[in-house]
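Problem: given the chain below (148 residues), write out its structure.
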Amino acid sequence: MKKETIIAVLIGLSLGLFITYGVYQARTNISRRSNEPKLAMTEPTEDFAGELILNSPLDESVQTDDSVIVSGTTLPNSFVVIFVGNEETITTSDNSGNFSVEVSLEEGPNIITVYVIDEDGQTLSVEKTVTTSDETFEEDTVSEPSEN
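Solution.
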């Protein structure tokens, strides 16, 4: 009976150590993953081999249309992600680096943020503000005082 008790204690001890080691490994992997960024867009670095130029829309423009064409030039064959508020549009640039996509706007100011992502995961972004309004604006004419 002594022999069976010792074997049972050794098996229990081995099993307990095995489970403890598994829990330890799981916790260290989880803590390592929580410290890593999760699909975060990194800030552009000096080794980012490209640029992002937006041709349209103009920054701080005012328009009556509820959509605008976002176009520009960047790295050839790269992903371009366009955010207008919480709406996301994904496209790619062509072999020359050109891209163009129509996005919907809401009434009032709209912040349009365009990200380009290169093959190494580096990102570059540009932000423009476009305001939509149904009102028409008239320019005030300043009349010169007449001399009598």
